[in-house]
Design brief:
259 residues, 4-stranded antiparallel β-sheet, binds adenosine-5'-triphosphate, 6-stranded mixed β-sheet
Length: 259
């Protein structure tokens, strides 16, 4: 991994009213890294993503990109897919127009796309294996296909970081596996880093490089294979969370975190 982090969070603190939501947050995200943020409901995961995006202002600490402080994220720097049940996305719009929406973010008003932009949109669709559906209606697609198109929309912005909030909501087990395989290919081929909030705690060790366990502060940050992680998860969630190892064999599996 390259030493210079794409994203660096130092001593971040966020409060809502008089309630401390995040404190002492220190994290580094590097090129090609896939980091999962896990933690109990209300632990501040979405707040952290939205603070990185500049939607919430921290009361202390700083966030740097490529070592530099920023007031506003550069256009397209982060491609963010918010927490939503993807099956419920039913825009009366063609797949190609969904992807073009991402590209338009990069263009000055009135956001007219030239041939090069259109080629980039096609390339983005190709990267997620959805180019055959370019003229289809978005609402006619399955949940997993819609997710791929929405990811293509982000790729059309040529982001350095892709951020997902609970990306496997609404996907079946195969769809979930496809999603993780896709993000693995994307980070390898596009030099991007991936930061995602997930409840797929049981399976993430197969797919992510690092895990940050967040419940107001960071309780663990390291490899999902680190022997300390199960104990940290048990402490933070108050129950035994089982991690599935690489061959998809579940060690004394007791089920999913959403139970
Ligand atoms: N805009 C807001 N104004 C006030 N409080 C907020 C706001 N957004 C979130 N909170 C509070 O901050 C805390 C953390 O919420 P957040 O959504 O970040 O948690 P989370 O870890 O993403 O939870 P979940 O896993 O349930 O999605 C919660 O107590 C929530 O009620």
């Amino acid at each position: 991994m390259n030493n210079q982090p794409i994203l660096e969070i130092n001593n971040l603190k966020v409060i809502f009213g008089d309630k401390v939501i995040l404190e002492n947050i220190n994290l580094k995200l590097h090129k090609k890294e896939i980091m999962a943020i896990v933690g109990p409901n209300g632990g501040g995961k979405t707040t952290l993503l939205k603070t990185i995006l500049g939607i919430y202002k921290p009361v202390a600490g700083e966030i740097r990109i490529f070592g530099k402080k920023y007031k506003r994220l550069p256009k397209g720097f982060v491609g963010y897919l918010p927490q939503k049940d993807l099956i419920n996305y039913n825009f009366p719009i063609l797949v190609k127009d969904v992807v073009c929406m991402g590209r338009k973010i990069l263009k000055p008003f009135p956001s007219i796309l030239n041939e090069e932009d259109k080629d980039s949109c096609y390339e983005a669709l190709k990267k997620v294996g959805m180019e055959k559906f370019i003229k289809e209606s978005f609402s006619s697609l399955s949940g997993g296909q819609k997710q791929r198109v929405l990811i293509a929309r982000l790729l059309a912005m040529q982001p350095k970081i892709l951020m997902f909030d609970e990306p496997s909501t609404g996907l079946d087990v195969v769809g979930q596996e496809d999603f993780y395989e896709l993000i693995n290919e994307l980070r390898m081929e596009n030099d991007i880093a991936i930061l995602m909030v997930t409840h797929d705690i049981g399976v993430i060790s197969n797919y992510v490089d690092t895990v940050a366990c967040l419940n107001k502060s960071i309780h663990f940050h390291g490899s999902p294979k680190d022997g300390k992680l199960p104990d940290v998860l048990e402490k933070v969630f108050g129950k035994n969370i089982q991690l599935i190892v690489h061959d998809h064999q579940c060690l004394t599996c007791k089920g999913h975190i959403h139970e």
